[in-house]
Amino acid sequence: MFFPESLKMNNKLPDIKTDFAAWYQEVVYQAELADQSPVRGCMVIRPYGWEIWENIKTVLDKRIKETGHQNAAFPLLIPESFLKKEAKHVEGFSPELAVVTHAGGNKLEEPLVVRPTSETIIHYMFAQWIRSWRDLPMKINQWCSVVRWEMRTRPFLRTTEFFWQEGHTAHETQEEALEEVKMMLDEYVKLAQNYLAIPVITGRKSESEKFAGADSTYTLEGIMQDGKALQMGTSHCISQTFAKAFNMAFQDREGKNSYPYLTSWGITTRLIGATVMTHGDEKGLVLPPKIAPFQVVIIPIILKDKKEEVLRKAQEIKEQLIKCGVRVHLDNDEHKTPGAKFYQWELKGVPLRIEIGPRDLQNGQVTLVDRLGILKQALTFDSLCDTVVISLEKLQHEMFSRAKLRLNQMLHKKAKLNDFAKELEGNSGAYQTGWCQSSECEAQLKQYKATIRCLLNEKTFEECFYCHKKNIVDIIVAKAY
Amino acid sequence: MFFPESLKMNNKLPDIKTDFAAWYQEVVYQAELADQSPVRGCMVIRPYGWEIWENIKTVLDKRIKETGHQNAAFPLLIPESFLKKEAKHVEGFSPELAVVTHAGGNKLEEPLVVRPTSETIIHYMFAQWIRSWRDLPMKINQWCSVVRWEMRTRPFLRTTEFFWQEGHTAHETQEEALEEVKMMLDEYVKLAQNYLAIPVITGRKSESEKFAGADSTYTLEGIMQDGKALQMGTSHCISQTFAKAFNMAFQDREGKNSYPYLTSWGITTRLIGATVMTHGDEKGLVLPPKIAPFQVVIIPIILKDKKEEVLRKAQEIKEQLIKCGVRVHLDNDEHKTPGAKFYQWELKGVPLRIEIGPRDLQNGQVTLVDRLGILKQALTFDSLCDTVVISLEKLQHEMFSRAKLRLNQMLHKKAKLNDFAKELEGNSGAYQTGWCQSSECEAQLKQYKATIRCLLNEKTFEECFYCHKKNIVDIIVAKAY
Question: Is the pTM of this model over 0.80?
Fold first, then answer.
């Protein structure tokens, strides 16, 4: 286990209430989720952060496979001309591209772009593989990193290189494609709510906010502690212009030439940032048990007295918990005081802490403390596993409940822009309102640096928030990351 | 499950005995391990190939973690100047670099290279993290892809982009670093022999063949069916010039400034190529059960009679086998004949095939056939799981035994170059001989397009294979991929 000495020199965290942005950045670095890299806009994801990503990946990858998709790997470098085959796609991505112009000591005849997303190269391959309706549906997923040249970056939330999975599918009918898009959105919602303990709002994106080259984009949005929205994943019906641009014709059931209906969907390492911003507190991270690298940390209270026995028992407890399927770390570093360890592991957001000292040994018990501060209890050795497993479940639920409560408090229904314009300036949350679907009314939100986060599947207002014409669809408005 | 129609139009495989290279290429494409991509030198790894990689990754990742390493992620793009910090490193890699010169619509002040390997960026970060001997050892691993601009490429064996893991560690002492290098070499040997069923030869590389920037490189080499050697993984003691170039000074136990001893080690998607070339036959792939995507394929023999019952029983058997931890595929595609399915799944190298038809149903049994052609037996339903599990183990062992036998037949001891020069021209295997360690004698092998694959840890010859001076160390000579 590697925890650099430099950690000992931590500064106090900035105040989460008054300077959320600084708190976020510091907690990401101090808890060793990530570090700054010497490459502009890129971060290094450190082991503690990467393990969270691996846990997220394990959960989602299982579901991706269970829902009939297969993983594959496509080239990192894409011919520049591929991106130009679909007009809106190139318009959306060309300002963000990193371009390889030289390789093997020579100038390339055609530049290659580092993939910003893989629709183009995957659709090119789909065209090779799809000949008949019997080849459909084709359901492929890829775990990789992509590069988008961002001007302002923040660890996990917006980085030049980021990690994600990108699903790409092709279907016989539009209905089936839409079903796929909604199914994967639903999988993302389950991941967010049941594993990351982050409640989300779902809906369609407005025309101006959808993916470059999509017919429609569905999104899940979380509301962070500072009241800003965070897009946590998207699922797209891809325009048939892609299928045509890449010559993806196939012979349909009637023997005629048809083009498949395409989808793509993805979640990124941004989910780690979402978890930090949803659950963190003044002491640092608070990690949901289901994705925490360590669910339990054992801290032996080592005095001169009975040192060997305490360490032996601590080791025994560790092994016992591993057998029960608990991810556990025993911190037996003798160079650190228990106090320093408490501080460090609270900063790192470990859900449960077990303390064991000479007196506990004598009493045949340990002390169990949780990161939310809701329980501190003495446990006998024989009840340990059961209690730990149940406590982890309780914590997971409690974290979701708290986050859900806050989301509800932060989500306001307001009929008119005037009713929430001032509040928007103060960053106080998200607003459900009505919209006539005109881009003119949408543009009014710019002055508040707010956007339509999504179109809901309901209509509770009579009028548009700005022009007061008839409401067509309820929307969520918020500032966003 | 996706098996394109195009598969139906397979051509016969080239003859494995007379045209191994063509056979290899065709079997990779026809068995859908990989496909050609529109990007020069890059391939698409298709689901069937990627699943083999995922299985390899699962096995090795577990061992990497159990031996005390942690996964992390470092930037894909590296400042060009970083590669220049270590003279031999840049000399080795600069002809192969892909260079990003433009990004976000502007020319970059400093070009970025797409990582060919990550020593430089990881060492830069090590320098930030290592302050004291208490931060050591530092043991990091990364799963990713790297890009090296290769002139001649072959799927899996040599591609411009390839997938790998790269371990990077830092230690207080040289002894500890060497121990690490040998431990990881040993892990690779276990992976190759116990999982891929490929016997290997291990040893040190000669000066001319070692990694650009290493003090010493250890390798594992397999001998393929055509008699050529394939480097299957390497483990390096990295030169301390790296530690100095990247300012990695730390305070040692005596309070003095010291530089850590570094290692790196990696295996790549090349192992998939090694598996194909070691075990394949005239019918196609033969996959070792431990890494096969499907260990068993069930093929229902569907006649008009009792179709429903046969399909129901086939599904039942599938579920039964899944419960026993077997990876199984039920091929119930009604558009294909059983014969076409036999052909396809033999091509794809599935270790065991279960056939079940109306008559089997009546007799309360199925027919079990293995890919090596050593058994064809009737099995009663109740003995199914046990027999399948045992058969898979037997096949795994049998594959290793056969490969080991062939390796022994292909490995010849010869005292003088003249004794094996002619044979080298004919590609007939590997030669153990003596060497004085002079580069002049090593250079003599060039005319036969052969190289020293490794230096062994033994000395059975008196003289050097060329100059007849005193033998210092036995070597393995072969042509190589």
Answer: yes
